[in-house]
Amino acid sequence: MTDAADATSRNALVDVAPLAARLEQFAAERDWAQFHSPKNLVMALTGELGELNEIFQWMPEEASRGAGRDPQTAQAVQDELADVLLYLVRLSSVLGVDLNAAVQQKLEANALRYPADKVRGSSKKHSLS
Questions:
Q1: 129 near 119, Cβ under 8 Å?
Q2: pLDDT of 28-52, one tens digit each?
Q3: Domain segments of the chain: what residues?
Q4: CA quadruple 82, 35, 50, 100: dihedral, nearest 10
Q5: 82-124 pLDDT per residue, tens
Q6: DSSP state, 74?
Q7: To 5 degrees, how large is the angle CA 101–CA 102–CA 106?
Q8: What is the CA radius of gyration of the chain?
Q9: Could you read off the pLDDT of 14-29 as tens digits, one per residue?
Q10: CATH code of domain 17-114+124-128
Q11: Helices 38-56 + 74-95 axis angle, to 10
């Protein structure tokens, strides 16, 4: 690893390269890459988000906070979160998007858009704060 790559790896907030490689291999072994267009992956991701949403639908607010630990919902929450992550990483890989760079840029933009001293304790859109 080069010094620059080593420094980038140490500073990474998100390192999905091993997962992206594993997903690429998984798709290649099944000849599924042909189906992994961005459109199809976004639709699959949306479906998985819908399945995650379904777990929480009609759940009381307080129960939702413990859904990842509740024996009745924990496995389903875990499975759907994993599905969402897998499709998100596969989509970013197919699109050639560096998720670490995207996350870092978005965090910086959000810090400017939502200054803590102006939005603390408020759920209003930034333009209404």
A1: yes
A2: 999 999 999 999 999 999 999 999 9
A3: 17-114+124-128
A4: 50
A5: 999 999 999 999 999 999 999 999 999 999 999 999 999 988 8
A6: H
A7: 115
A8: 18
A9: 999 999 999 999 999 9
A10: 1.10.287.1080
A11: 160
- Rounded Cα gap, residues 1 and 45, in angstroms: 33
Q: Report whether 67 contacts 59 (CB < 8 A).
A: yes
Structural tokens at position 83: 């599905």
CA–CA gap between residue 36 and residue 44 (Å, rounded) = 10
Taken as a whole, the chain contains a residue count of 129
Secondary structure of residue 47 in the 3-state scheme: helix
The residue type found at 84 is: V
The whole-angstrom separation of Cα 89 and Cα 16 is 7
- What is the reported pTM? 0.86
Interhelix angle 74-95/99-113, rounded to 10 degrees, is 100
Closest of 126, 128, 129 to residue 111, by C-alpha: 126
Q: Are 22 and 43 in contact (CB under 8 A)?
A: no
Cα 32 to chain center, whole Å?
22
> CA 89, CA 40: separation in Å to the nearest integer?
14
